[in-house]
Amino acid sequence: MKLMLKIIVINSFVFFSSLSIALQISILITPKQRSIYAETFKQFTQQTGIQVTTIARSDEDYKKDLPIWLLQGKNTPDVLYWHASQRLFQYAEKGVIQPITNLWHNGGFDNDFSQFKDTVTTEGEVYALPVSYYYWGLFYKKSLIKKYGDAPQTWQEFILLCETMKKDGITPIGIGTKNNWPAAAWFDYINLRINGYAFHQQILKGKISFYDPRLQTVLVEWKKLIDNHFFNNNHNELKLTELLPYLYRDKVGFILSGSFATKSFSKRMQHEITVLPFPAIANIPVTEEAPLDIFMIAKNTKQLPEAEMFIKFMANASVQADHNRRAGYLPANNKATIGEQPFIQAGAQILKSAQSVTQYLDRDTIPEFEKKVVPLLAQFMQDADIKKTTAQLEQVRKEIFEIK
Questions:
Q1: pLDDT, tens digit (0-9, with 9 covering 90-100), for 229-277
Q2: Where are the chain's structural domains?
Q3: From 100's CA, which of 57, 168, 177, 389 has a CA 20 to 30 Å away?
Q4: What angle, rounded to 10 degrees, do the helices at 213-227 and 367-383 form?
Q5: To which H or E segment does residue 186 belong?
Q6: pLDDT tens-digit map of 282-338
Q7: CA–CA distance, 365 with 204 (Å, rounded to integer)
Q8: CATH code that applies to domain 5-134+291-334
Q9: Which fold has domain 136-289+361-400?
Q10: Which residues contact 259 (CB under 8 A, 6 or more apart)?
Q11: Cα–Cα distance between 79 and 86 in angstroms, integer?
């Protein structure tokens, strides 16, 4: 069989592509996202002539299959969707991800993705392309909060509003901790607002004792919310998105969530719900949660030139703008235009004022630490026992980071 080659030039890059084999790309999607990726991949094929075979999985299945693909090398896709920071680094450090450092430098990606380079770089090598990111904030119903005046900007204003809502029979804060991880958002944000970005990162690297007075202050502040019954009592029985109807029906005042929740809003809710940044507690630089999604290349791919062509294609500002506009996310390329949807614009404003961003606790620390810490934070939502929780968290820190 003759091997057909096609010479393709993308933004001054010259690639030699075999047209006989499709590029396999894995994606983690909800049902509504399938057509979004299909359109993006169609554009790639039209531009390059390279066919794409999509391997789509739900969140739970994707997280099961990814280590099989990468660590066992079974039916590994050529290009894989994943998350930045420690979730990426754990595979890069095992040598199963192809570095894209040369592609990054030759393509001028330092300019286009400057704010995200640290989240895809380890040991001096770049391992992934930033594609999409989303924001976190306090979602609320405009008409409900308007009854009480302006939306709170400071922690004191937020606490006072919660107290007033509670007196009126409204649950001030809705949360669902059935899957544990939503509790981590409250730990992250209270700590980021009290102690700041650098301290937070040190915690996630195991450098700070949970007996440190600065961390004790975080738990004390969080405990006040729990002891005052600002959260719904049955949160351990619910998932985060199951709280959305309560928000719409004026049963709940605020929900701290990522913007992914907006995909569950009806058209009516999209007009009536809005979002504000987590209130300021201390007078320190603002840090926001902004988890980043990436594409990476498998080390064992047999189609490295084609995979690199896809990375280069997805790095393009217009491609990122178009893809993320349809998906309802923010484009990672800082030259890409942002979608006009109200929630996207609101998120852009929240992140515009941030001096730094984090990836969320479960992405910013090593998996072994996250898997044990997050359930303990969810349990703290149940009993608000600072002494017990501190001892348990400190034990995990010493165990995982091998501290004597």
A1: 999 999 999 999 899 999 999 999 999 999 988 888 888 888 899 999 9
A2: 5-134+291-334, 136-289+361-400
A3: 57
A4: 40
A5: helix 182-195
A6: 999 999 999 999 999 999 999 999 999 999 999 999 999 999 999 989 999 999 999
A7: 5
A8: 3.40.190.10
A9: D-Maltodextrin-Binding Protein; domain 2 (3.40.190)
A10: 134, 135, 136, 137, 275, 328, 329, 343, 344, 347
A11: 18
